[in-house]
């Protein structure tokens, strides 16, 4: 089979709305490598969008799933429950930030985790309004895309969004938006449009993912925590992309001196198997009535088994320290290219959740064309990269944290060559 042949078949089989950044059709994957149907080898700096932090097909994850396969694959926990579901809840209750009694709910996707966190917050508070941030990404369900602070491609054409959701600016120094601006946005909202006594929750990503890998300042987290405490509002951390060692901590909220009431997680939780969760304060999580939460596939036994193995691997291989080391090396390499690549506007991100943002060399105008040229040049050389950002001018780096040193070094050489080659391509008019 050829990639081009499959791509043609795709046009008549798959909905056009399913976007794709490459036409590389994978046949095999191992740790940080993928091979396509033509036998071409790629270094994967996407990791399924931060899903396989422990690498493709980590032996311990695969062994755990194979063992579970030999027992059972599905009973629906709400009908015939199983012990490892309970045990994973116990582990997450102990690991998620917050020195208080916790409860956990398992679902299937990150969007489901967000949806359920909002449901829980609304039930617990008896309120309906929710505040989110510009540039945020919280999923493609109706509540998820309503919370998402980016119109294209997520909201355009899908009609009216869910009611009682409000957006305020997210602090980004590079774009001239301060913590004071963000909090002033909430103050203005409370003065003009929204009684704080109607607000059930404020939700944010500790590091914006799709929005551009902007890390929330510590001052913002403290201000939000105080605002929520003063007004009886639930603070929700969306750790779907930031969780499980990606930022150099098991959870990104560990970088702060305050904790959320509810934490949403998915992606890397189960190392490539569909599993998501909400963990939070027991009195909030227990507010909903029995039957109000759940789902047929929520906490599927294979995903649960994989998640136990993922947590073991993160601890045994010290992947938090590994993420910090790899991220430091990546940032240093990018910094060394500034003189040769004046399009580099900023290099940022905690741990191994690193991004580089590109502007025009002459001013601060976002340069999505250059970001895409770098991505395409890298792909030609066998390195898979992803773009992101409200202006699509950011490249995010999401390699498996288990990537071997020699493969990482090879990827850095490809990245440098790709950035220099992108400079040689004539600018679009």
UniProtKB/TrEMBL annotation:
Sorted alphabetically, which keywords does the UniProt record give? Aminotransferase, Pyridoxal phosphate, Transferase
Fetch the CDD domains from UniProt.
OAT_like (cd00610)
Q: Which PROSITE patterns match?
A: AA_TRANSFER_CLASS_3
Question: Required cofactors, per record?
Answer: pyridoxal 5'-phosphate
Keyword ATP-binding in record: no
User: What EC number(s) is this enzyme filed under?
Assistant: 2.6.1.19
Which Gene3D superfamilies does the record associate with it?
Aspartate Aminotransferase, domain 1, Type I PLP-dependent aspartate aminotransferase-like (Major domain)
Q: Does the keyword Transferase apply?
A: yes
Q: Which domain of life is it from?
A: Bacteria
Q: Matching InterPro entries, A to Z?
A: 4NH2But_aminotransferase_bac, Aminotrans_3, Aminotrans_3_PPA_site, Class-III_PLP-dep_AT, PyrdxlP-dep_Trfase, PyrdxlP-dep_Trfase_major, PyrdxlP-dep_Trfase_small
Q: Name one GO molecular function term.
A: identical protein binding
Any one of the GO BP annotations:
gamma-aminobutyric acid metabolic process
The similarity comment for this entry is: Belongs to the class-III pyridoxal-phosphate-dependent aminotransferase family.
- What name is this protein filed under? Gamma-aminobutyrate:alpha-ketoglutarate aminotransferase
**What organism is recorded for this protein?**
Rubellimicrobium mesophilum DSM 19309
